[in-house]
């Protein structure tokens, strides 16, 4: 068992309290980390504030240097990928093969935004006057990065990449359950990137209180948040009650994965399972509503059931494991409670409880329910290996069901008819629409939600906008006085 400190102003420091970190596959304590209270967070904020205000990190002349820092971060992650992936799996319970992919994605994200650091530019505007008018893009300032537990280091990278490329100073707050890879990453940074000014990159560990201290701070200019819609609401209230800092929100979803009768049955059923069971279903864009056209409904459900039986639950450190435990005891109770609700209001097809083969750990059976779109399991985000399968008649009906949700993060459509696919692509109210696939995510393309799934976009050229201000500059070229008075 290891004891960690948190990273503030280039030093590893303790906090008012400590917290035990659990391996969800065993229930055992694997580490002790600081539990930051408001006073601890305020110190990190002060360090970030001072670093942003007084160091040359933010200067446009330093864009190349910022890019190089991000390339170094990428290299550190690539060199230590195996160790980091193993730690991620021990802490979050995700299958090691998925953690390997995550570490590669973390490095790719740093590389992408490292390259972008030198490509942030304004525009010149033709105004109807004897003048020169242009814009400057400047870092928003001190940014709080508050992230969830489902992709711990990857969600950190999605925010660190653009924030650091833009020239911000950052305070990263991992989820209370999964701070370990962020803390190991901070150790690597401290040791290997001395050119990063102290206070530009900080990691505070703790729970909601720490997040709230960041949100309420008058010294923080921006909150970038990924997590639940419920906490998203708290954040908007906190921001409204403090300094109206800028906010971007990546929230949850209840994404429809829509299967028309002409889709390839084998590819489609693979897509239905991958869409919802990857990472134990702990995915914001999970295709947790599988909408199937009536004509193929029975057959489709049969194949889904057959293939779901093949999902190998087990020790997430074993490479053959395809599904690990959910992240915590608390989340296990939340997910299994939904299973009980589902058994009352819908028809259970398979699964439906804790995975009994496991004496330890927070394992849940992959579960399929048949339902319509009115049940709680079809409407509320469960964030576990649970799918609601819902029949539909035709395109109009599919769209009506797809849109009958407060969320709009993602959607997928499966069909061999390109006209139908493109009609659906245009009609669907979601930030990400996949056709004949579900879940691929690329740093080059924007990620974010319509409706109550969030505000703003991460990744891609749009991602850095969330960490930039735009300054208009107007230079008068006429030497004549205004002559108004
Ligand atoms: P969460 O409870 O909303 O927490 C997210 C982060 O916010 C955690 O670091 C959390 O700290 C912190 N937090 C909690 N209360 C806060 C408050 N009042 N003020 C400021 N920060 C606060 O989410 P989670 O349980 O970690 O993750 C699951 C949720 O995240 C799901 O609903 C999922 O849909 C969503 N998610 C969305 C995306 C996306 O890209 N749209 C990606 C991943 C996950 P604690 O750790 O102490 O709770
Ligand atoms: Mg939480």
Task: Kindly describe this structure.
By secondary structure, the chain is an alpha/beta fold. It has two domains: 2-251 and 453-472, Aldehyde Dehydrogenase, Chain A, domain 1, CATH 3.40.605.10; 256-435, Aldehyde Dehydrogenase, Chain A, domain 2 (3-Layer(aba) Sandwich). 38% of the residues lie in helices and 21% in strands. The strands form six sheets. A seven-stranded mixed sheet has the order 15-16-17-14-13-19-20, sandwiched between helices. A six-stranded mixed sheet has the order 10-9-8-11-12-22, sandwiched between helices. Strands 1-5-4 form a three-stranded mixed sheet, with no helix packed on it. β13, α9 and β14 form a beta-alpha-beta unit. α2 (63-79) crosses α6 and α9 crosses α10. It is globular and about 80 Å long. The model has no long low-confidence stretch (mean pLDDT 98). Residues 146-150, 173, 175-176, 207-208, 211-212, 215, 226-228, 231, 234-235, 250-252, 284, 381, 383, 409, 454 line the site of NADP nicotinamide-adenine-dinucleotide phosphate.
